[in-house]
Amino acid sequence: ELFFVTDRKNGFWNLYKWVESRNEVQALYPLDAEFTRPAWLFGNSSYAFIKHKGQDNYIACTYRQKGRSYLGILDHVLGSLSLVDIPFTSLSNITSMGSILYVEGKSPNHSLSIMKIAFEENQISVKDMCIIWTSSSLSNTEYNPFFSSPEIIEFTTNVPGQTAFAYLYMPENGNYQGPEGEKPPLLVRSH
Questions:
Q1: Is residue 7 part of a domain?
Q2: Nearest C-alpha neighbor of 103 from the set 84, 122, 127
Q3: Does residue 38 lie in a domain region?
Q4: Within 10 Å of residue 107's Cβ, how many Cβ atoms?
Q5: Considering only CA atoms, which of 65, 87, 62 is closest in space to residue 73?
Q6: 87-102 per-position pLDDT tens digit
Q7: Relative to the CA of 19, which of 9, 98, 143, 165 has its CA 20 to 30 Å away?
């Protein structure tokens, strides 16, 4: 079997496998979500195989849906997807070694970090998870009063029936208050 990501069937980058015996491409779990990052980002790793109790039918995968990243465990034999609750809202890369999973991610409360996730022996559920590396030695809790947490907003586009998503960061600083009636500055960044 050959596993890959393509957007040919539903317009979203989903996981598929080629079944040689039937010469057929099969969607593993069709979802209106992106199971990979943009193709122009080289070295991308958005899914990894997990060996669990001698079985290799589990795939850990990251996907983006409505502006947020998620970590899932896909059983490609049963066609089921289970979410793994982690503290990251933006996931970059994923890799595995046996039944251990390593996830690169971040959130408003976590700088870019690598998390190690170990699974229970008898079932695919999280036994232990811990951050093993972080890009910053600063304590985020010390500076939380100065950082705003993003709100994911959805807005219409020029394409009929389609929407897009953005992060809205409202001003946040415990030491300052803007003048009453004055709107805060607005900075817009797009790609």
A1: yes
A2: 84
A3: yes
A4: 19
A5: 62
A6: 999 999 999 998 899 9
A7: 98
Overall residue count recorded for the chain in this entry: 191
Q: Give residues with Cβ within 8 angstroms of 117, minimum separation 6.
A: 84, 86, 100, 101, 102, 103, 126, 128, 129
Task: Write the DSSP assignment of 121-137 as a string of letters.
Answer: SSSSSEEEEEEEEES--
Contact 151, 170 (CB under 8 A): yes
> H helices within the chain, ranges in order?
140-143
Per-residue confidence (pLDDT) for residue 110, from 0 to 100: 87
Range of the domain at 57: 2-139
Q: What is the pLDDT of residue 25?
A: 94
Number of Cβ within a 10 Å radius of residue 165: 13
> In the chain, which stretches have pLDDT less than 70?
139-141, 191
pTM: 0.86
The answer to whether position 154 is within a domain reads no
Note the pLDDT of residue 140.
Answer: 60
The torsion angles phi and psi of 132, rounded to 5 degrees, stand at: -105, -15
Report the number of distinct structural domains present in the chain. 1
pLDDT at 139: 65
The CATH number given to whatever domain includes residue 122 is 2.120.10.30
